[in-house]
Amino acid sequence: MGDRVLAVVLAAGESKRMNSAKSKVLHTIGNLPMISHVMAALAETGADQVALVVGRDAEPVIAAASSGALKITPFEQKERLGTGHAVLAARDEIEKDYDQILIAYGDGPLIEAPPLLEALEKVRSGFDVAVIGFHTDKPTGYGRLLAKDGELVAIREEKDATDAERQVTLCNSGLMAINGRKAAALLSKIANNNAKGEYYLTDIVEIIRSEGGKAATVEAPADIVAGCNNRAELAQLEAIWQNKRRHELMLSGVTMIAPETVFLSYDTKIGQDSTIEPNVIFGPGVTIESDVVIHAFSHLEGTYVASGATVGPFARLRPGTNLGAKAKVGNFCEVKNAEIGEGAKVSHLSYIGDATIGARANIGAGTITCNYDGFNKFQTRIGADAFVGSNSSLVAPVSIGDGALTASGSVITEDVPAGAAAFGRARQSTKEGYGTEIMARNKAWKESKKQ
Ligand code: UD1
Ligand code: CA
Questions:
Q1: Is 107 in the pocket of ligand 1 (CB under 6 A)?
Q2: Is 142 close to ligand 1, i.e. is its CB under 6 Å away?
Q3: Mutation choice for ligand 1 from 35, 38, 52, 83, CB with most ligand atoms inside 8 A
Q4: Is 348 a catalytic site residue?
Q5: Sign for the pseudo-dihedral over CA of 17, 23, 25, 29
Q6: CATH, domain 231-422, list 1.20.120.160, 3.40.50.720, 2.160.10.10, 3.20.110.10
Q7: 209-263, pLDDT tens digit by residue?
Q8: For a tag site, which of 130, 188, 320, 329 has the least CB within 10 Å?
Q9: Domain ranges within the chain, ordered by starting residue
């Protein structure tokens, strides 16, 4: 198909009902701005160019929309006079001889390519407009798609509808494809003589019909065309999106015991035969290879986990964590910007930050890398097969050689060569009988206070 397609994306809304300091389309689903989700779907339709209609927060909105592969030209809609007016803000681009114009909304992040492609195909086959509709048992607030003899004849906004028209449950998603050669002329004919005094894009259907043109309807599942007006709806869209991604991952070979408690990001990757226990959160930038177990209540972000590793329960893996094959990070451990070698173990209650740990090294319970002096960060290097005794404080910059050992309770401030043992603690002194004496004294003091 050599057709040239322009997508016009409306993102100029004030987002009043979000009660937010930033534009609605910058709020995220799966940790990715809604506008970026829309762009990803448009990229899949093969659109050649995007005209992005912006209002408030133009700069960050343009930046979020530009993160993908599509070429974007921003247009500013200076006043909010309705969806028809918003589309015409991009008139300069619309007039550039595209075959089809696709209209999408920046606040409909769940959109997928198939209905958009279907709408484009309808226009290609001779319809002047193809409107994407959906069925809902709660149509209040939506424009209704009015049909006669099986043909789309009008879109009626709720406020302008008769009682009979309000009974219609086939609603306007707002998404549509328009004949690119006629779009500019058709859009120019839209007026604002309606209940809201706005330029309604939806009037395009009646304009086309009045000129003897044809309008088509394409039906899409309500879930994927849902829009977001407030934070309650944002949470609903998030839930739909999370369910879909969990489902895809499970079908691809990932086990989730309680999938409804696992939260994914847009770029979360999990390999075959990995198990994700309940209440695990994946922030952005996480890749998990195969045969990994993430135990309950773990939080991962910016982390790579190689095959056969285990994490948690209650582990926090922060950006820059690179966990080697069959390595282990156990309960109540935090890891940041650290490479943990193949088969190495950080099993209990440790903080590992700005560090490299060699293969098979064992990091004892309660080990802390003291990586920060209040101003600067320093590296800790631990060699292969090293054994760090429990409750060691490793004051960076410091290195512990291959096969070296630190005694438990040590504060290690100097490098430990390969194969050495380092003791960084006070020597124990033991006094026979003195324990009994101290306890007797303490007991007597308590009794004396009672009188
Ligand atoms: C619109 C449709 C309605 C449809 C509904 C689906 C019209 C007249 N009505 O109604 O049939 O059922 O969407 O959600 O088109 N925008 C601008 N500039 C403007 C006005 C709107 O950029 O001047 C953007 C908004 O940011 C939003 C989108 O266009 O992303 C839709 O506008 P909105 O006011 O929410 O339209 P609805 O009344 O919901
Ligand atoms: Ca809306």
A1: yes
A2: yes
A3: 83
A4: yes
A5: negative
A6: 2.160.10.10
A7: 999 999 999 999 999 999 999 999 999 999 999 999 999 999 999 999 999 999 9
A8: 188
A9: 5-225, 231-422
